[in-house]
Design a protein that fits this description.
This protein is of the alpha/beta class. The protein has an 18-stranded mixed sheet that branches. A two-stranded parallel sheet has the order 10-17. A two-stranded parallel ribbon has the order 14-20. It starts with a helix and ends in a 5-residue tail after the last helix.
Length: 486
């Protein structure tokens, strides 16, 4: 595209951006999908080798605040955890699998707090921000100009006025409906604000890739505490989804007016430094400049017993670390795989890893939404039900609220929470972030939450599903045809 045409397109995109403030994000999403249809299709790598189950942990690396743990201390730590899992090699297998995929060590000595709802998450994040002394690094896909977004923006501005460094990354598509003035106000207050991959090609640095989005949700405060998971900055997280509705007052069917059921986590301990590195790397990659030092890496101490690995993926690196982690975790499961997923449009290898696990006797259960903000993805996910059910996987749909969580707990010891959906877009096109936790106590809290979601879900009956109507099948077929672009 020559310079003149680029600026003509840029002006047009400026006008489109202003109009976006008056339109729903869903409308713009459909417009961008049309643009994406014109792009060349990429593909995920062949990772069938990950289906081989790992043996032993003799080469696994575990680090602490003082560096790599010596073999003796590492073995004591693993034995203590193994004894709580049972007389098997489940823990050893998962640790070996993690090491083989990521090439980065597990970090010991962390405290991990499960945040099982939007209001709980927002309160915890706001409390950490209010206590910030040196810096606040926030990365989010959606930052809306509503009561929740304005309250957070006001707090960030107050902290900046108090001398705290504030750095914000938001995604250009995710915040498409948010007025520019909302972010300009924060810039004028001295906050460093970065719009990730602007939809206006005139503002883009380097190649313009409309499909590449920053879907991460990450907050790091003072280098001591990190938050990650599925929660965006939006009013949909202002209502609790864990309070049962009265029959006389059912939840609204409009996804934007309903409460959203999501999961986040708070992390304290040595692994916070790894989450900090992921934020700073994104800023430098997008701007070409490193952020000025603001005590981003303070000395950290042991806060708990959890082993944690921070995993970030980006199309630029194309290492597919989160994708490989999921497939390997499914392949190495011995007893249980319990998944909660908001958007399920996976590739063949993910489906194969899950169905193979079920066929070898693993109890595989998946909770899907029954209501979604993107209806076509709901139907695309349902198009996989018949295959999953045939393999012996138990399929559920959560009722009442919009399910937006992206979590898994396996074998009572391995857990993950993050921004990554089980779909091709997350694995192939988005910047994503997940935390993998190896800890029995945390896994039990994850299982308790999964059980609570099951109680508010309806199990899909295989026989009834096989006899679903023609129009339902047609909607699934049509949605599945566009699975790459969803």
């Amino acid at each position: 595209m020559d310079t003149n045409n680029k600026w003509k397109v840029g002006a047009a995109m400026d006008r489109l951006h202003e109009s976006a403030n008056r339109l729903k994000r869903g409308t713009w999403f459909r417009v961008l999908v049309v643009v994406a249809l014109l792009a060349a299709c990429a593909s995920l790598p062949d990772v069938r080798y990950l289906q081989e189950r790992q043996l032993g942990t003799q080469d696994a690396t575990i680090v602490s605040v003082r560096g790599e743990l010596p073999d003796a201390k590492k073995q004591v730590l693993l034995d203590r955890m193994e004894n709580r899992v049972g007389p098997t090699d489940i823990l050893s297998r998962h640790i070996a699998a993690e090491e083989a995929i990521s090439g980065t060590p597990l970090v010991a000595g962390n405290k991990v707090t499960l945040l099982a709802d939007g209001p709980v998450t927002m309160r915890a994040m706001m409390a950490a921000i209010r206590n910030a002394r040196h810096h606040i690094n926030l990365e989010t896909y959606i930052f809306e100009d509503d009561e929740v977004g304005r309250a957070l923006a006001d707090l960030l501005i107050r902290k900046r006025a108090a001398g705290v460094t504030v750095n914000l990354i938001y995604d250009s598509v995710g915040a498409l409906g948010t007025p520019r003035e909302f972010f300009d106000r924060m810039r004028e207050a001295g906050i460093h604000v970065l719009e990730y991959n602007p939809i206006n090609p005139a503002n883009a640095k380097g190649d313009w890739e409309i499909n590449q989005r920053d879907h991460r949700k990450l907050l790091v405060v003072d280098g001591h505490v990190a938050f990650t998971g599925g929660v965006n900055i939006s009013k949909v997280y202002g209502k609790s989804s864990l309070i049962k509705s009265k029959r006389s007052n059912p939840p609204p069917k409009d996804a934007k007016e309903n409460a959203w059921r999501d999961t986040h986590m708070q992390i304290e301990g040595p692994v916070v430094a790894d989450f900090q590195k992921l934020f700073l790397a994104t800023w430098q990659r997008e701007t070409g400049e490193a952020l000025p030092d603001a005590m981003y890496f303070p000395a950290l101490k042991v806060e708990g017993m959890a082993l944690v690995r921070a995993i970030g993926s980006t199309p630029d690196k194309a290492d597919y670390a989160i994708y490989k982690t999921y497939i390997s975790a499914f392949a190495n499961a011995d007893k249980t795989i319990h998944v909660t997923t908001a958007y399920f449009v996976p590739d063949r290898q993910v489906v194969q890893a899950m169905t193979d696990a079920a066929r070898r006797g693993v109890d595989v259960r998946i909770i899907f939404p029954s209501l979604s903000d993107v209806g076509i993805i709901l139907h695309a996910g349902r198009s996989f039900y018949e295959e999953l059910l045939a393999a012996g996987i138990h399929v559920y749909e959560r009722k009442a609220y919009v399910l937006h969580a992206k979590t898994a707990v396996i074998d009572g010891v391995w857990s993950t929470i993050g921004s990554t959906n089980l779909d091709i877009r997350s694995f192939l096109h988005n910047d994503e972030i997940n935390a993998v936790v190896l800890d029995v106590d945390f896994a039990q809290r994850m299982e308790d939450l999964f059980t609570r979601d099951l109680q508010d879900s309806v199990e899909i009956d295989p026989e009834k599903w096989r006899h679903r109507g023609f129009m339902q099948r047609m909607r699934e077929w049509a949605a599945r045809a566009f699975q790459y672009w969803l």
